[in-house]
User: Fold these one by one.
Assistant:
Number 1:
Amino acid sequence: MARTALLPLRPLALLLALLALITLLAQPSAAIASVTRRGKYLYQGNNRFYIKGIAYQEPAPIAASTAANDANGGFPEPDSFTDPLALPDACSRDVANFRDLGINTVRVYSVNSSLNHDACMSMFSNAGIYVILDLALPLNGSINRADPIWDVSLLGLYAGTIDAFTKYDNLLAVNVANEVVNVAANTDAAPFIKAAVRDIKAYLHSKNSNVLVSYSSTDGDSGPTNWRDMLAYYLTCGSAATSVDLYGLNSYAWCGNSSYTASGYDSLTTELASLPVPAYLSEFGCAAGIGANNRPWTEVAALYSQPMTNTFSGGVAFSYFPQPSGTNYGLVTVSGNSVTTQSDWQSLKRQFANTTSAPTSAPANASSSPSYATCQGDTDNFIASTVLPPTPNLQLCNCLASNAFSCALNPTAFNSPSVIGTLTGQACDYLGQQGGNCAPIMADGEAGTYGNYSFCSPAQRLEWAMSQFYEMTGFNAQSCNFAGNASAKNPPTPSTLAVNQAFSSCLSQFPIGVSTPKLDLPTSGSSASGGAAPSPTQSRSGSPNSASQPGSVWGGMGLVIVAALSAALAGWSIL
């Protein structure tokens, strides 16, 4: 009788154990449950989802204010940022606190898309924490309320961040802007915000992403004819294609042990009740008169119960990190790698823990198919036009820069926002003296007029103006010098006819209008800085395609398993 070949018992047991481990690891990791929007509410499965969040961004020094900023509300702006999602050690330290506080969301205000965010996003996902991510950056990386524009530089910056983050299963929403409009006089910025919403939604859809698109507004005078409410309805009007999916309001109206009526939350809830999209308090946590450490957080009980839940889907407490100056809203103190919670941490924790009675279903009369109202604008308190700027057309701008512009910036000036700003004013003045104007590179959100090249980068808009002046002066070499910051193209443009033909050719190839953005991300001359290199306080971590992405089952552990399996196989013998 033939003898059957057998594996030795010990290697066989090892092999079976390894195979079982491989099978276990090969199973997809439990993904965080998706959050969807139906009508004006958020859902996780069949139950309503409420944002229980905290603002998560270390504060930076405040930039010097400008006259234009002072004339538009004087809101302070940071001059730099540290990307909190690119610091794995800090995320590992803080995620335990997030669990303790009972939150499900963090709001992050600025990130560097060139850094690696796998570790932090994975840790947060495993802890059941979603991320609401602002796309703008400090200074030149956001819509400027004093001189609003929606251009290829901002679109490229935003798209680069989207490309870096849509792979993560816990990205809940991207925020196109924060507190751009802060007084009635700068509501002319609203068309640019709405255009950004439209184009970012189209870009996300082209990437097969269901991430929500949001905006966060500062609080203001209440009432249906005042700018706060009119902005909310303006950004949710028209159609699904141009409406935000999620509307945020930064409100500090409830201070200390206020009440639903005394705080004005009753009128706020009523006035925003007809929004066709979910709303939330994108910042809350007044410290006026009581100090941050003494906040009782009594607004939480109102925010997560009726009638507020008929309009709002939660909120984000401000803020995790302490502020170095002014009112300190920090819920923790940080010393090196050590974090200590403040006394009001426990108050917020208790309040969040008591929100279990929030309704799990929508009101009986709620519709899952939102109805978008006709857009309204051009009033005394809300001067925005209902006509939106076109989609920034990078291909057109690059075609013009390569083929139609006759005067070009030198590399140093091309990458200097301050030089570009100064020279643009000069070039437009020179054009005016020659009987021309800069209308083709200007945009006016109040009048609803947008020049054909107003969406090009600041450097490209300047090169247009310099080229126009150069051509109007008969291609005089001195007209394309601009204090040594520019020079004529080489080989030189042969004639005005050739320039006009180049413009016509570019416009026919890349027509102006509303479309899904197609991006070859700009490498220089951008008004938006910060997406191309680490901030001064950061270093590069890994490749965005490293094996540590959420859901990866291999990486270092996979190599260990393969090595062990090889060793086991090497130990087999035939009996």
Note: The two ends are 15 Å apart (CA to CA).
Number 2:
Amino acid sequence: MSGIFGIFVRDGAPGRLAALRGAGRLPQGRAPVFSDATAMLSQERPVEGIRDGDAAVATAGRIHNRLEIARALSLDAAMVSDHRLFTLAYARWGQGCFSRIHGDWSCACWHPAEQRLVLARDHHGNTGLYYHDAPGIFAFATARRDLLALGLAPVEMDELYLAQMLVSWRAYQGDRTIHGPIRRVPPAHALIITPDRIEVQRYWRLEDTPELRVRRDEYVEGLREIFDRAVRERLPDRGGVAATLSGGLDSGSVAVTAAQMLAGSGRRLAAYTSVPLADPSAYAVGGLGDEYALARDTARAAGTIDLHRIDAASVSPIQAIRDMLDIVLEPQHAAGNFFWLLDLYRTAARAGHGVVLTGQLGNGGISWSGGIGALPWRRQISTLGMAGWARRRVRGMLPVRIEQGWRGWRNSGDFGGSAIVPDFAGRLRLSERRAADAEEAPYVSPRLERLRMLLPGRSQVGALHAEMGRAAGLSVGDPTGDARVLAFCLSVPDSVFVDPATGQSRWLIREAMKGRLPETVRLNRRMGIQAADLVPRLRACPAEVGDAIDSIAHGPAAGYVDTTRLEAAWRLLRSEDTPQAYSLAVSVLTRGIMAGLFVNGFGRSW
């Protein structure tokens, strides 16, 4: 719950920084860290006023392994703040401290004698840090709105970013934002800025994790140890702690582990579970549309979890989309989920909780299912069917160029499963460009599939949840996204994630949670479906849906978002209770509306 901001006049033009300050364009209410004629740094937290070494350091966020860092610096962790600890670590190790410090953090380090600025952010945590390299001047901020307010240069919309988001092509993940010249500092990256160059460095690569070969029981013990540490480090010494809790393994593992640790000091964990307002069974065929019963089992098994329902009755999906645009300033892929996420964070904050724990990144880490190739071939066939199994085998043996050509032919249509205007997609040559993207190739190795899910060094998920939490007035922590947890899980051979006796997936976390999670949850095979009652919720706010579609049709968004498809999806949603209706609500209607409302407000509201 903190932020940083700064400016570096790279061309040394006199008076430029003073002019911005005089025009009232700099954010107010910040503690100054450094200021002269060519550079200034500020942060929201008070600064101790002590500089160690030759750098002024501004920090935001939280250090998780503070005991380890303090010990290495011969300090008493109880006597130093996170900001002070980071400053001393940078004075000792320089940029080498970035790989050592685990947490949800971002920093700016200014070396006045060298006219050198260093920006960095955490390995894979919940943090956002943005920058604008304008002619002669460089600015950075944890809040993108602070950069837009500077008006340093015209900001154009990145049309390719918008198109990729609309069609679920993950290539927009990384350093880009939809505000063309404004970039992100991606996870595990540092930037070095001087008057004549900008250098981007990546200081941690999950992809380079070597495989670990030990006994099966040692993998279980290793996961418990490293996961417990990640949870423990995210628990504050005082104040309320909350967690999201579904009926699944990821959030359940986080919640029961945190509750067990809090109970040692007589504290309880508040858990919040999203529940439907209407029966979701028609839309969640084969999955779980209401996970409350399993979440209740988890809470009862822990014994010290206070479980709360989040029905989000007071916020419609469309209003939540509008609220999210004000928070994150760009359209999002999972637009249909924001009604319950926003209500959950707001409810937790109103209850006085300063920290909410999640299990957002478990699918590619602690609860990785094990690739289909890890199963015996008979079970592969029973899972995929003979035709699907054969197709997978053949496609996996195709040369790269033939595979790319096949994908180009397959994707040469008009992206009918999205709300993109076909002419817009054609103008960008979206099909051809996507077919040429090697990361879009199917049937990759299980290891690459996991890396695709996690997107190390590129993921925007942490920034999204950090900004949502910040808007609600709390911090969001995810032990499943801890870099050490992810590295351990990636080191585990794929076959270990599958039970050799039964073929059951997610064996490692199921085994590690024996005695913690109830058997109804630990052994459950049905997947939860988020926002499963999205269709009836949209039906309950027809005027809002209609107004949104109408505004898109009569605004600049009409050149990007196909209102004919929005209207067709809306007609089907009002008449059918089917999985297809739910799918269209997610992939076409809510995603398309969020994109369209953004375009209409671009340059004015965001």
Note: The chain has four domains: 4-203, 208-369+453-534, 376-448, 541-601.
